[in-house]
Amino acid sequence: MRFSTKSRSLTGIAAAVVVLSVGAAGCGDIVEEAKSGVKKAARTRSVFSLDTGDCYNPSSGKTEGEEVSVEIVPCDEAHEGQVVGGFKIEGETAYPGDDGAAAIAEKRCPAESLTYVSDTWAVPEGVSLFYYYPTAASWATGDRSVSCTYAKESGTFSGSLKNESLNADQLAYLKGANNLYEILWANQPEDSDVEKDFAGYKKQAGEVATALDAHITSLKAIDQPETAKLRGELEKAAEAWADAAAAKDTDSFYVAYDVAFTGIDPNKTVAARTELKLATTVPADDAEVWAG
Fold first, then answer.
1. Model confidence, pTM
2. For labelling alongside 10, which of 53, 163, 251, 284 has CA 20 to 30 A away?
3. Cβ(137)–Cβ(12) under 8 Å?
4. CB neighbours of residue 44 within 10 Å
């Protein structure tokens, strides 16, 4: 999954100003332009005061870079992004730098967003996780807030991303599945060469095996045939992840890992998701990972 960054600037909140130019445009056009400008000004809010659930359009018109204000809009109107979570950076006595602040946001925003967007498969195509984080200047004034958002780099979408009215079976499935893949990527070793970080890969396998066991346990409470079939497949995958975690050498690790990774291919969950009436289109990034 690709994560992009947004940062905020301390250099003043620019007020929206309506400029009326009498010329070729007719009086009616000028009035409508003025109304539009006043409406936008009334909706303008500082990025320091975003709330979870807010749908917005960046005032700068750009998806990335520093931002001082956004236009808050009703979620049923076209918009570029929606705030889906947030937190305050703690444990840092000095500003961690742009890269450090972005790394903190990137690490925590995926999990924070899941409390609002339970089914990430239902997120519209082209909408990705972004975040606003403090700059050095705003940090000096006491700013520690990170806003996690889903936004579209090009174009807009409409409607809130909040998954409402989910039943017990849907929530149980999503909680276990979300945690499983979050653990997988959160523990991804930095080196792509297993031989260079064998311990790191074994640790990842152990963490995934534990998350998978918890997911399997929650699926036992769902009495539906396709979900039961998926549970059986995941039990085989869990054994393979445990074998990978306990591997004595890289050769045996590769043998177990091949079965383990293939066993949690998201494409294999589509039938169960269909049965549970959840979104069934595998996100493009995930589809690419398991395709190759």
1. 0.78
2. 53
3. no
4. 17
